[in-house]
Amino acid sequence: MKKTELNNPETKKPEIKKTEAPRLMIDPLETWGIKIKEKLIIAGPCSAESEKQVLETAMRLAKHGVHIFRAGIWKPRTRPNSFEGVGSVGLAWLKKARLASGLPVAVEVARPEHVRDCLKHNVDVLWIGARTTANPFSVQAIADALRGVDIPVLVKNPVNPDVELWMGAIERLSQAGIKKIAAIHRGFSSFKKNEYRNTPHWEIAIELRRKWPNLPILCDPSHICGNRELTPLISQIAMDLLMDGLMIESHIRPETALSDAEQQLRPDRVGELIHSLRFKKEFPSAPESHLELEALREEIDEIDLQLLNLLGKRMKLSRHIGEKKRKEKMSILQPRRWKHIVENRVQAGEKKALSETFVFRLFQEIHKESIRNQRLGDQ
Ligand code: PEP
Ligand code: MN
Prior knowledge:
There is one protein chain. The chain is an alpha/beta fold. It has two domains: 29-276, Aldolase class I (TIM Barrel, Alpha-Beta Barrel); 287-378, Chorismate mutase (Chorismate Mutase Domain, subunit A). It has 14 helices and eight strands. It has an eight-stranded parallel β-barrel, surrounded by seven helices. Helix 2 (51-63) links the parallel strand 1 and strand 2 (68-70). The protein is elongated, with a radius of gyration of 25 Å. The two termini are 16 Å apart. Manganese (II) ion (MN) binds at residues 46, 249, 259-260.
């Protein structure tokens, strides 16, 4: 290929195809051997604290429509010298809780020893916590300990908003032969403080669904919110986005909880939350709605094509401007022009009921691509 061809953005191939993902063999939720009604509801304390607390919580939750009982046994705490879980002794309590409530039990594992201990105590479901998902060495060690075992494993998103890292953890389990896998969106750490404990990035969960449509995705509203008040709202958003279930923290006396006291719900409140949920389905039941939607979507498709045509034209002009800048030894970034574009487009967008944030982000992306194009022509 001639050098000029290589430098021409129109002939340059993108390095990574973001649209592709390796195939994943996943058993659908219905085949997991767990009784589920509509959506999979997992609930239980952040931490197992005592036999009495575990038993009471499990029995009450069973009456409120929960399908799996969760409890942390080994707790990954951000700072040392806080309650780090009761350890293996709690596994015997869970065994009793399963017997008394009839609910399968789920435990967080972070190391191969945890896996072995859980398997020894017949724990039904395992989950990998957010801090562990972020560490490929730990995930691999867990996957290796699970080789040849048929047990459901839930994978929380990593603490940082990185869909590849989340996928990597899922692939490691899949490659170890685990087929009953689900992802859990529990929100992401962010430096900027906001109303959430862990900011939800629904777009990341949506991207995971696009890559692996057959992978069940649950939501953990408790760790997203960090408080009881917002939890029902986040749970409903998860339903609106077609997630397959919820993992909710619940404690018989939340105020006294040894970890995550602010976000745990009493079992009866979990029941109310489940009751208040409006479950959604992907497709309409009425055939006429289906046809109406089709017609509207055809219009959208047409508009999207027009948008792409216009963006293509815009980029061509931008490259042309880039050549002029090069000849004149002008900078690619033109701060005054960019300031004008932002102000003008945001104002024009407002007249079309488009939010400032959306228009700003949209033009930031377009501008970034223009700069990339002009720089390509500059090399
Ligand atoms: C938990 O579920 O108690 C927990 C520690 O969650 P995360 O890994 O999402 O922080
Ligand atoms: Mn917790």
